[in-house]
Amino acid sequence: MTNDTEIYLDLAFSPCPNDTFIFHALVARRIDTMPFYFNPFIDDVEELNRRAFGGIHHITKLSFYAYLLLKDRYELLDAGAAMGFGCGPLLVAGESLKSLKNARIAVPGQYTTAYLLFQLWHGKTENVIFTRFDNILPGIASGEYDCGIIIHEGRFVYPDYNCVKVIDLGEWWETQTGLPIPLGCITIKSHMVEYKISVENLIRNSIDYARRHPSDSQGFIRSHAQEMDDKVISEHISLYVNEYSMFLDEQGKKAVSVLEEMARKQGLL
User: Fold this and answer.
1) Is the CB of residue 61 less than 8 Å from the CB of residue 20?
2) Of the listed 24, 57, 58, 152, which one is catalytic?
3) pLDDT tens across 28-83, in order?
4) What are phi and psi of 9, to 5 degrees?
5) What whole-number percentage of the chain has pLDDT above 70?
6) 240: Cβ–Cβ under 8 A, 6 or more apart, which residues?
7) Three-state DSSP class for 8?
8) Which of 1, 81, 172, 189 is the most buried (most CB within 10 A)?
């Protein structure tokens, strides 16, 4: 991990536009990262959640649900989070769905915050099918699933798949708590906490660079995005990269605490 004064760290994040926007300047060394060198690993957030249970990466994006299950192994960073208002997951369905009873519900991962929110709203259910987030809308359109919880770019394009919104789980959360919805976070292994502040500052510098040089990261973002439409990518970044991506602040930290408290009360942790 270290070589004299150089420190090499694995950095895992998702291919979603908010993450690639945030981390492009860091991994492409558009900013001064010394003494750190970051080795990127990019995959679906649920795969990152699963890998974290094996402690594979030094620094990793996690769903907040996964983080709450891994607090003994990973420390929450105060930068890089996906959190805010009006940005929560949606439960959508084909227009013919009349009831959730016995419906085949596609879920973008067992450890996603989307699944936790669904359980907090609906209660535990057995008729869920775990699949990658980008399989859900095509699966509903083809009849493989009756409904599904969509995240990321899906909230911008679900009408294109002849889907209708059943409930906005983020809106439900905001009504219940008055707090921003904590979706995803960046974490570092607990035994590496000495690097925490330095890495947080580098993430903020990377975001600042991306905002000042938006065209520089465009190719990197588009090469990983599931939805290639530039307007969708821009809307995604505007929604998910916000003040909570720079600092969680007290309101953001309270949102995480309330999420944990609600999950514990329902036996979901």
Assistant:
1) no
2) 152
3) 999 999 999 999 999 999 999 999 999 999 999 999 999 999 999 999 999 999 99
4) -130, 135
5) 97
6) 16, 17, 18, 82, 84, 87, 183
7) strand
8) 81
d(CA 179, CA 184): 15
Q: Which CATH class is domain 90-177?
A: alpha beta
CATH topology of domain 2-84+181-265: D-Maltodextrin-Binding Protein; domain 2 (3.40.190)
Same fold yes or no, 2-84+181-265 and 90-177: yes
The tens digit of pLDDT for each residue in 68-85 reads: 999 999 999 999 999 999
DSSP-derived 3-state class of residue 36: strand
Backbone angles phi, psi at 98, to 5 degrees: -105, -30
| Contact criterion met (CB below 8 Å) for 210 and 140 | no
Instruction: Give the type of residue at 160.
Output: D
Residue 184's H or E segment, with its range, is strand 181-189
The H-or-E segment that residue 147 falls in is strand 147-150
- pTM score, whole prediction: 0.92
CA atoms within 13 A on the CB side of 33: 25
**Residue entry with tokens 């975001």:** 207
- Measure Cα distances from 68 to 154, 162, 256 in Å: 25, 35, 9
DSSP state for residue 77 in the 8-state scheme: P
Domain ranges of the chain: 2-84+181-265, 90-177
Specify the pairing of strand 128-130 against strand 105-107. Answer: parallel
Q: Residue 224 catalytic?
A: no
> Which sign, positive or negative, has the C-alpha torsion 238, 241, 246, 252?
positive
